[in-house]
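Methods — Computational structure assignment.
A single polypeptide chain was analysed. Its primary sequence is given first, followed by the predicted tertiary structure written as structure tokens.
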Amino acid sequence: MNQIYTPELRDVLEVFQVYECKGEYFDLSRKPIYRQSFTVGMTIENEGYIITDKCINCQKCYDICPQKCIHLSSQSFMIEQHHCLHCGKCQEVCPVHAIIKRGGENEK
């Protein structure tokens, strides 16, 4: 800091401490994108969307996903959370309402 701020300018510096926060890191240079959530002083809440056992494997969610992060996994579809934009397009097109937002009231 001595090299950046001369003695006359040091009074503009303010010390602070972060007690709690949450954020996300995105790597947009990758396709699909990479997303990682992080917190300071709190726990990471489950967010995003999940596909429940109501799924009828119609593939409408797969077709609409802009990141192509929905995959067939042992007889049912699943969402790769590290690539998901949390846009909700999959939930909008699901004809049987099998996709729910995590942390929502209707999550099982």
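Note: Helices lie at 60-64, 89-93.
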